[in-house]
Amino acid sequence: MAALQEKRSSEERRHKSIQNGAQTSQGQWGRAWEVDWFSLASILFLLMFAPLIVYYFIMSCDQYQCSLITPLVDLLMGNTHLSDIWNKTPTLTYKAAGIYILWVTFQVILYVFIPDFCHKFLPGYVGGIQEGAVTPAGVVNKYEINGLQAWIITHVLWFANACYFHCFSPTIIFDNWIPLLWCANILGYVVSTFAMLKGYFFPTNAKDCKFTGNFFYDYMMGIEFNPRIGKWFDFKLFFNGRPGIVAWTLINLSYAAKQQELYGQVTNSMILVNVLQGIYVLDFFWNEAWYLKTIDICHDHFGWYLGWGDCVWLPYLYTLQGLYLVYHPVQLGTANAVGILILGLVGYYIFRVTNHQKDLFRRTNGNCKIWGRKPEYIECSYTSVDGTKYYSKLMTSGFWGWARHFNYTGDLMGSLAYCLTCGFAHILPYFYIVYMAILLTHRCIRDEHRCFSKYGKDWKRYTTKVPYRLIPGMF
Ligand code: NDP
């Protein structure tokens, strides 16, 4: 069995690495081979508590008007018991299961059976068959990029139903939100467990599997790098984009419809959330080919972190602002609304331009213009597992000369704008900015660790030239 052989050689590699006293070496620049106690503790914490955190947030809106403190106080004071809260929680229903199965099946059909046609008539859009980055084993995967078309078809059908056909209410998602949570959890666990077994018994590419020897770490962070079924069903591309990100805008639309139903109007804060997050989602699908070069695809293996995260964490916690606004319809003053819109748009501009600069630079191998000038860069090299040497470049011009992750800074500004739409009465909507700040700072450190493992002294030269991570002059 190729995967089991790879497991054995993984272990040998790990022993050699420890004997040499080297944590990482060139040719081993994918995800970690060893698990330190801090990573293990974090993983165990997340495996145990992440599903409870999601439940707690959604339950607190359902039962406590989105107050995160009141349920805790009630529990501590003995005013309520866990069993009372649990008994009031909606259970899994056949209706929710039916909706969820239809939803996921529809997205699978759009992904697998409808080749991209958008790139044939949308100027500047890169869709159809595209190549990913070189994996640690030296493989270059091909992907069918058709997310934009899946998003458009899904939303056209949604609006057609809301305006003409009326087969179901546009509030359907909100109305079944907790029963759907159980369905999303089932899918998240099934997919992650399947991915783990697949990594052991029938991996897509055995050389791109990693076994740390720690069951929990492997389950959480994944074994296979790019698990696939058949030639085209790529787990990472499918689960991250759809059902997770296609659902994001539909969920927000369902919240807006609920506001309309409950209060007879949609507030400007709800419109801002729909517009700003809608831009972010559309940007993701417009640039899906670029996404093939991001850390999720180029570095992360597919385990619970991505599988469960895409099914549950993303659709439930990234949409908290809209959910909150159903319970607390905030009508912002004009100055506040305009200020938030500007913050969101400037954040988006920085996020997009920074990502675009890197993409353009890498696609043209540096033969392009950044802010009207030839880009400056540092030449670097790395080797894959089989010992092949590759050459690359790290740009030091444009926003990439200001900070090493200015794209994250723009993302954080946008995230703050979403939260500010909700005013300051509750902390629940601010979970997103806190979470994004932790996620992106951790991601920044994780990425730099990986880049150092990959590029060695060349990465040091780069960090000397661009000393700041997120905020020039500060961090
Ligand atoms: P980046 O797009 O910043 O990619 C990092 C990689 O780019 C590095 O590993 C390295 O890869 C390469 N690189 C680093 N520095 C340079 C340079 N100076 N010149 C050229 N290439 C360089 O990170 P992510 O993939 O994490 O993020 C992509 C976007 O997605 C970000 O804008 C982020 O904000 C967003 N994001 C959003 C999340 C959300 O939940 N909303 C979650 C995660 C990300 P190589 O090995 O090729 O050299």
Walkthrough of the structure:
The relative contact order is 0.11. With 475 residues, the protein is mainly α. It is 63% helix and 7% strand. A hairpin with a 5-residue loop joins strand 1 (128-134) and strand 2. It has helices at residues 2-19, 37-64, 69-76, 82-88, 94-113, 118-121, 147-165, 172-175, 177-201, 215-221, 235-263, 268-286, 288-291, 295-298, 304-317, 320-327, 334-363, 399-402, 406-420, 431-455, 457-465, and strands at 128-134, 140-145, 228-229, 233-234, 377-383, 389-395. The protein starts with a helix and ends in a 10-residue tail after the last helix. The chain has 21 helices and six strands. Helix 9 packs antiparallel against helix 15 (304-317), helix 11 packs parallel to helix 15 and helix 19 runs antiparallel to helix 20 (431-455).
Note the main sheet.
2 strands, antiparallel
List SSEs in N-to-C order.
HHHHHHEEHHHHEEHHHHHHHEEHHHH
Distance between the termini: 47 Å
Total DSSP E strands: 6
Rg, alpha carbons: 23 Å
Count of alpha and pi helical runs: 21
- Would you identify the regions where 5 or more consecutive residues have pLDDT less than 50? 10-29
Shape: globular
Enumerate the strands of the largest sheet in spatial order, edge to edge or round the barrel. Answer: 1-2
Strand % is 5-15%
Q: Structural class from helices and strands?
A: mainly alpha
What hetero molecules are bound to the protein chains?
NADPH dihydro-nicotinamide-adenine-dinucleotide phosphate
Which range best describes the helical content: under 10%, 10-25%, 25-40%, 40-55%, 55-70% or over 70%? 55-70%
What is the typical, i.e. mean, pLDDT?
90
